């Protein structure tokens, strides 16, 4: 019943390398910025106009999002900035992921009976890991930017002082996190209006955050991790029952990591390395799917195969992945085309594989808010950055006087590792809490280089569904479509456990639903669409740049034609 088609080999690898090298010979006819908030996109454009490169613009967008989209990311959080420097074709991932505090312990969220205490890793200062965003901003400016950090941070400082009007997404998330925000007087004073969800049109001003941003503009990372801001953060956390110390902040460093790379149908995939699971899971899924001629199959069969690839990649995610500074991850094996081919042997075209028939592991869900932006500058430099404070409004806690909304990224660890799951198997030890460790993430900023077609820059928020959304975007690109289609395409998801396909309204048609059910899949329609993809395509064949912001969100994608040479 299988339909093996083609395999990528070493010869193809060499041909691809030559083809990819030629991608760097030209510069784009335009630059572009796509982010989840118009004010953040405009901040990036302002910095490009001021002579900054994509990396300076990434600083501006990161900092602006920290101000105007507090539901998704911020100085109190972290993220992954995937960079491509055009002059030497250098790809690197800046890992600004949060770290567990030094006083963190493996069982810190369990009660006397060894049961997880609800909400302890989600609300309040004990949920917060040590943030990485400020260190990443400093590193981007020093190692890759062209402008002073103070220049790139200026738009965000201005926005924090002047304020921004709340939008529908903000109001929905504030409603969702109202009780948690009320627990932190400093958070409630900033993000609520008289302790209630703000009225439409309410303007959020953040003078404390402006001062913290100014400290970073003046002193770089030291303005955040040392001195008055650091003391304010630690005092606020500890007074409310948290465990941060000044040493935690002083020790924080970003890490430059080699991205995960691989190939799919002649395209080069560059994506996030551990502690993100994104790149590895993407490559596993693509290596499975490379064994089928997807376009030649009926759409329901195609979706069945995509789901089976998702199921297998997410099982491996739970078993093997964690912070690479703490656990050995068999990366080479997991992203090898032969491994994908081997996994594809277990897939039947006429039947769903029950997840319980695969060796099982505990699944940890990831917070679903987060944010993503994509940037291309006129020199061909690129940034794909996915940033997070985890749940909407993170831990919903602000240390007084700092203006910094803290993350609840500790919830991305497995709180109860080593415990047999419902199938009696032990899992998730690779993602157990340890002092100084980074929690496993699903954030998947990605580049796709397709010889003859161009370069794609994409990513999205969405918790554990991030990786499957990026997969569907890549498959759509492989079918010949552009960024408007990638961001709009209907989404479906499987993550091994629960053994259910979830899908957006309209993502599966009635015939597909009937066929998938007949194959033995369980399906669950989601009430709302999900994700907020921001994408750019530099189409080298047509010498054109296109950008798109997910129609499900309120973002803005802007293409700025390059100025003619004087
Ligand atoms: N907090 C979401 C993620 O890292 O995947």
Describe this structure in words.
The protein is of the alpha+beta class and 566 residues long. The protein has a domain at 30-255 and 368-431. It is 35% helix and 15% strand. The chain has helices at 10-22, 38-49, 54-68, 133-143, 149-162, 168-176, 178-182, 185-191, 207-219, 222-225, 227-239, 246-251, 278-289, 299-320, 331-334, 337-344, 466-478, 483-488, 510-518; strands at 30-35, 78-85, 90-96, 164-165, 203-204, 255-257, 260-264, 267-271, 371-376, 382-388, 446-450, 454-458, 492-493, 501-503, 523-525, 534-539, 544-549, 556-561. The strands form 4 sheets. The protein has a 7-stranded antiparallel sheet, with helices on one face. The chain has a 6-stranded antiparallel sheet with strand order 7-8-11-12-16-17. It has a 3-stranded mixed sheet with strand order 13-14-15, covered by helices on one side. α2 packs antiparallel against α3, α3 runs antiparallel to α4 (133-143) and α13 (278-289) crosses α16. The chain is globular. The termini are far apart. The protein binds glycine. Residues 366-367, 370, 388, 390, 409, 412, 441-443, 463 line the site of glycine.
Main features:
six-stranded antiparallel beta sheet, 566 residues, single chain, 35% helix, disordered N terminus, alpha+beta, globular, binds glycine
